[in-house]
Design goal:
By secondary structure, this protein is an alpha+beta fold. The chain is built from five helices and twelve strands. The chain is globular.
Length: about 200
């Protein structure tokens, strides 16, 4: 059950991220309307899952509000991104610091900086959740729960393999308006060949 999503790019990702980023800014400043209500203490299980998201080895598919965003392969900072509905593949090798983009239609590749390769990343858990991993006081029992005075609630569940993130959900008084689910494959088995130059 895969549905394509054309035009998922840097601009679209920024558009979806804006409300969550604004809420986090309000929380971090901790002042005025929108101040966060505190949760429980930092939880070792969720923090282990955060480290697995940042430094682990896995293949993951992301679905947002029922729409397939694509597949990503990850290994300790190296990544290969295959966004759904795009002909461009992005690759970055953390060890060498080199990246590439590869056009599947034209079968051409070109060098890319990490920032250029990551421009296609609007769905990898390590990227989407890093700002929430910093807010340890809202983690408890492998879950992140944060509510703001303006009516928004944030939920993250870390019940994927090895404690990896499985769900990110944002809701307001009308209900859930953003839901991202991650499904993992090949945990611990992603080959380093995936982060080599295309055709190499």
């Amino acid at each position: 059950m895969r549905r394509g999503r054309a035009g998922v790019g840097k601009g679209a990702a920024r558009g979806r991220a804006a409300p969550a980023l604004l809420a986090l800014l309000v929380v971090l400043l901790a002042g005025g309307c929108g101040r966060a209500k505190t949760g429980g203490p930092g939880d070792a299980t969720s923090l282990t899952g955060a480290e697995m998201a940042r430094r682990g080895n896995y293949k993951v598919r992301a679905v947002e509000n029922g729409i397939d965003l694509g597949i990503g392969l990850y290994d300790d900072g190296s990544f290969r991104l295959l966004p759904e509905g795009r002909t461009l593949v992005a690759i970055f090798d953390q060890g060498s610091g080199k990246g590439w983009t590869y056009d599947l239609r034209e079968r051409r590749s070109r060098p890319a900086t990490r920032e250029e390769a990551a421009a296609l990343d609007n769905f990898m858990p390590a990227t989407l959740l890093e700002q929430y991993f910093q807010l340890e006081q809202f983690w408890k029992g492998g879950e992140f729960r944060m509510a703001t005075d303006d009516g928004r609630s944030f939920l993250i569940r870390m019940d994927g393999p090895d404690g990896l993130p499985s769900l990110f959900e944002v809701s307001d008084r009308r209900g859930v308006f953003r839901r991202i689910e991650w499904t993992y494959f090949k945990v611990g088995e992603v080959s380093r060949r995936n982060f080599s130059p295309p055709g190499g």
